[in-house]
Amino acid sequence: MNVSVLWEGVYPALLTPFTADDELDIPLFEKNLHAQLEAGIHGFIIGGSLGEASTLLNEEKISLLQSALAVCQDKVPVLVNIAEQGTKQAIARAHEAQANGADGLMLLPPMRYPADARETVTFFKSVAQETTLPIMIYNNPYDYKIMTTVAMFEELAELPNIQAVKESTRDLTNITRMRNAFGNRFKLMGGVDTLALEALLLGCDGWVGGLVDAFPQETMAVYDLTKAGQLAEALEIYRWFMPLLELDIHPKLVQYIKLAAQATGIGSEYVRAPRLPLIGAERAQVEQIIQEALAKRPLINAA
Predict the structure, then answer these.
(1) pTM for this model (two decimals)
(2) Fewer CB within a 10 Å sphere, N or C end of the chain?
(3) From 11, 61, 144, 166, active-site residue
(4) Choice among 138, 144, 223, 256 that is catalytic
(5) How many domains does the chain contain in total?
(6) Residue 29 in domain
């Protein structure tokens, strides 16, 4: 039985931990899940950009899904990311995710091909029509070079299972455009760590986070305080957090955030080739950011 996806709160875009032998590190994956659940997160996303989706085998994605479902035990929804080059492949991945118990999907536009508006809308509709799972469209023209515009969402609104948007345009005014156009037809999830508080203040329902993989309590504190209107308290943590959050908007965000998760004891730095672990001055710089943040880590009231 699927868990309802409310599209509210904090949804970590999960890292995929590997062993030194390049196998999935399921025990470490589950350790991270437990840390997230203890902090109070609201859902999980498997196999996103941070999860090194492009390097995962299909059976590995299913293994991660099954592990997450076993840990969550219907406490929170588990979503699978769909990021494929072709429509047939995307539909196949959606079928597999649904068959293996996923509660919802995050759906990217076609990979590698710069589809135009008609092609992109047709791609999204073709996948959505092949599943009953609720879907969040990932709108990230900065990284994926395809903008899903208000006009395109007007067409997508015809499909009831397209329910939410991961808002990663890096244009905060787009949040207001979407609200003005659709009201609450689409749930909006802020998808850029360095704009998370601003996105929440402008009306986003939740936050798809990256640094939450290393700092779940601090992420939840920013979210909870902002939603409670305790803006001064939220801003204090957010300002402390910002040097770490900036690790999420770098091309090597996977290596950077994995290093942070290793430093907090809920991850490891192992990545899958062609990525390589950080070395030299770059590694020292990222470690310095992490250690300076840890030295001043705020005391979060768990209550």
Answers:
(1) 0.96
(2) C
(3) 166
(4) 138
(5) 1
(6) yes
The label of the residue with tokens 């990222």 reads 286
Intervals of the chain under pLDDT 50: 303
Return the CATH number at 165: 3.20.20.70
| Per-residue pLDDT at 303 | 41
Residue at 296: amino acid letter: K
Catalytic, 138? Answer yes
Q: Which domain holds residue 234?
A: 9-295
Q: What is the pLDDT of residue 186?
A: 98
208 marked as binding residue: yes
What does the pLDDT look like over 241-278, one tens digit per residue?
A: 999 999 999 999 999 999 999 999 999 999 999 999 99
Is 166 among the catalytic positions?
yes
Burial 31-70 (b: 16+ CB within 10 A, else e): bbbebbbebbbbbbbbbbbbbbbebbeeebbbbbbebbbe
